[in-house]
Amino acid sequence: MLDKIVSEDVDFIVLRVGRMGEVLEAQKILVTGGAGFLGSYVCDVLNRLSASVVCVDDLSSGRLENIDHLLKSEKFVLIKADVSSFESNEKFDYVLHMASPAVPEDYQSRPVETMKVNSIGTLNMLELVRKSDAKMLFTSTSEVYGDAKILPTPETYWGNVNPIGVRSCYDEGKRFSEALIMAYVRQYSLDVRIVRIFNTFGPRMRADGMYGRVISRFVDQALSKMPITVYGTGRQTRSFCYVSDTITGMLLTLLSDKAKGEVINIGSPHETTILQLARLIKRMTNSNSRIVFKRLPQDDPRRRVPDIRKAKVLLGWRPLVKLEEGLRRTIEWFKLRGDA
Ligand SMILES: NC(=O)c1ccc[n+]([C@@H]2O[C@H](COP(=O)([O-])OP(=O)(O)OC[C@H]3O[C@@H](n4cnc5c(N)ncnc54)[C@H](O)[C@@H]3O)[C@@H](O)[C@H]2O)c1
Q1: Which of 41, 145, 170, 184 does the annotation list as catalytic?
Q2: What is the pLDDT of residues 165-213, one digit of tens each?
Q3: What average pLDDT does the segment 47-71 reach?
Q4: Residue 179, exposed/middle/buried by CB under 10 A (0-12, 13-18, 19+)?
């Protein structure tokens, strides 16, 4: 069953996408990575908009429970497969290529698979889009900017990435995907749009992992009265966007004529230090957990904040859910789920 908190988020996304979403009715849409955190939200919204969804996911980091309520729908099919070796003779109206490990633990434990899904996997999806004459959305990441020297970071910034570091399988994988997409756009005039997503949080985030998803880990630690682990001094910053805002931005990018062939930052422009975040979550959960400090992982960016002027101008999009409201919803979801 779709739980109440996610269901309200889906309603909010559908409302914000508005009449633009009507074109998706009865359309055939391939979603790679649809069992993951963001992908499962996308599948729920598309189902609500009466689209026919084929979800391709190898369940390497996604969870079946994110989408099991959709399996009952005749408009939803799950194909358990690796996108890097996926072929299809079917034609699609839209392809949303979201499959990729996204958390440091996931991509650092499977760096080769991460590079494959962001090279061969993206190539497979581009060929399918070309054959189908479909529209495509690719989920890139703020990590393409690496340890950015320009903050807030605009789409025109080229990045400061360590090409051989432990994060490079992800950063450079996504950069290769973007370059490959632009090659297809230039050579074959494909209709592809790229979103560079900054840190997103909300229900369905996995709480496991050492330092990967900081909000779900802090919430999990605070609720289970375990020490809250901050890496480094906690002065490094991130800007956290609630999931319903991110998914709205993604879908507006897919649907807006002005976004054709564009790369658009989607994220919150409000920077928070990791230590402020730890204290806020401790307070909001009424937890007596201690905050402890551990060594900062290699190549961890010091600050990350997007310039979202392009999304505002092209899509009329900006995040609406305040950090505390998003945290309240996330904490409530984790409590109801009994994860902690
Ligand atoms: N969540 C964020 O804050 C964030 C930020 C920037 C970019 N992104 C991007 O958004 C997308 C979704 O991220 P998420 O947070 O939902 O991560 P997630 O790990 O929850 O979801 C990724 C999904 O892709 C699937 N997958 C991975 N490799 C696959 C393969 N080779 N074949 C088929 N399926 C495969 C996983 O099983 C999982 O269901 C990713 O492309 C990620 O890079 C997310």
Answers
A1: 170
A2: 999 999 999 999 999 999 999 999 999 999 999 999 999 998 876 656 8
A3: 97
A4: exposed
Domains located in the chain, CATH noted: 4-202+241-269+301-322 (3.40.50.720)
In the chain, what is the straight-line distance between the N-terminal and C-terminal CA atoms, in Å? 20
Packed helices 323-337 and 214-223: angle between N→C axes, nearest 10 degrees: 60
Catalytic (active site) residue 211: no
DSSP for 243-265 reads HHHHHHHHHHHHH-GGGTT-EEE
For ligand 1, atom 28, which residue shows the shortest CA distance? 100
Q: Are 192 and 277 in contact (CB under 8 A)?
A: no
Which protein residues are within 6 Å of ligand 1, measured from CB? 32-33, 35-39, 56-62, 82-84, 98-102, 113, 117, 121, 139, 141, 197, 199-200
Burial (CB < 10 A; 0-12, 13-18, 19+), residue 28, is: middle
C-alpha pair distances (Å), 156 with each of 145, 176, 302 = 10, 16, 20
Rounded CA separation 24/256 (Å) = 12
- Cα(331)–Cα(284) distance, integer angstroms: 8
pTM higher than the cut 0.90: yes
Quote the strand ranges of the chain, DSSP E: 28-32, 52-57, 76-80, 94-97, 135-141, 191-197, 200-201, 228-231, 237-239, 241-242, 263-266, 271-273, 291-294
Q: How far is CA 337 from the centre of its chain?
A: 21
* C-alpha–C-alpha distance, residues 234 and 212, integer Å: 15
pLDDT digits (tens, 9 = 90+) for 98-144: 999 999 889 999 999 999 999 999 999 999 999 999 999 999 999 99
